[in-house]
Amino acid sequence: MAKQKEPLVKHIYTADPSAHVFNGKIYVYPSHDLEHDGEDNDDGDEYQMEDYHILSMDDVDAPCIDNGEALNMRDVPWVSKQMWAPDCAEKNGKYYLFFPARDKKMQFHIGVAVSDNPVGPFKPEPDYIKGSFSIDPAVLVDDDGSAYIYFGGLWGGQLEKWQTGEFVENPAEIPADAKALGPQVAKLTDDMLQFEAAPQEITILDENGEPIKAGDEDRRYFEGPWMHKYNGKYYLSYSTGTTHYLVYAIGDSPMGPFKYAGRILEPVIGWTTHHSIVEYKGKWYLFYHDSSLSGGVNHRRCVKFRELKYDENGKIITMKPYED
Ligand code: FUB
What CATH number was assigned to the domain covering residues 13-177+274-308? Predict the structure, then answer.
C-alpha cells in the first residue's frame, strides 16, 4: 500500500488527476504544474499551466508512463492562459479531452479536443463549448450512453461571477446563511462537442433535506467535481476548498439533487485538493494530489492514488492521506 502513496511521476509536477479505465488500462488526465515564481493569491494566479501530459499504467502495480505532450495552449485559438484541471471521456472509439482555460478576456470557459488515442495528440475545437464557463470539467458517460458534464469552481474559478448567466466582474458576496452555490451540470450532445441544453445548478442537501449553506465550509461545494456510480446510485464528490476536504453526496439522478454523505479524504499537504474515483478489476481507487514532491509549494503538486473502500451501506470510508 505504501507504494501507492508515492507520486505517480516525479520528473514533472502534476495535479488534478482524472482517472479512467479505457481498454483495460488505467489512464490519468492531470494538470501539468509549471515551476515559476508568479504571485500566489486567491485568484489562482500561481497556477500557470500551459499543456497536458497523459499518464498511463498497465495495472495498479505497473510503472506509470508519461506519454508526452497531448495538447498545448499554443494550439488552442481561444485560450490566453491557465490550462487547468482536465477530464477525458470515450464515446464510440473516440476520446474527448475537456479542459478549462482563460479566454482573451480572462474569463474561464471549457474547451474540448478530440483524438483516436486515449493519450492524444488531441485536436482542439476552434472555440470553447458554447455557454460554458468556470473550471474543472468532469464527464460521466452513463450506462445508456448519455454524457453529462459537471463543472465549476469558486474564487479563481469564477463561478460566483456567472450567477446571472452573464459574466459579472464584481458580484455581491453570498451571505453565510444563504444557499451555497452548487456545481453546474449539462447534458452533452451526441457528438460530445456542445451542451445539449443550458447548464443547471446542482443542489446539495443536508441531512434535513435543506440546501447546504454558503457558510458551511466543511460541506459546501468549492471546486473539483467528480461523478461515479456505485450500486446504481450517483456519487457526486468534490473539494470544499477553504477547509481542504474531499467530500461526497449521493443522488438517484445524474442531474441531482444530491444529499451530503460524508468525507472521503482529510486535508493533504498544500492548499488545493482535487480527485477522481475509478473502478479497476473489481476494486475502487481514489486518485488525488498533494504538494509533497515540492516540499509544500501550493502550485507544484504531484498525483497519487490509493484504494477506496465502501461500507455495507455504500458509504465511503474516510481516509487520512498519510496513514494506511
Ligand atoms: O489546478 C488548478 C486548480 O487548482 C484546479 O482547477 C482546481 O481544482 C485546483 O486543484
Answer: 2.115.10.20
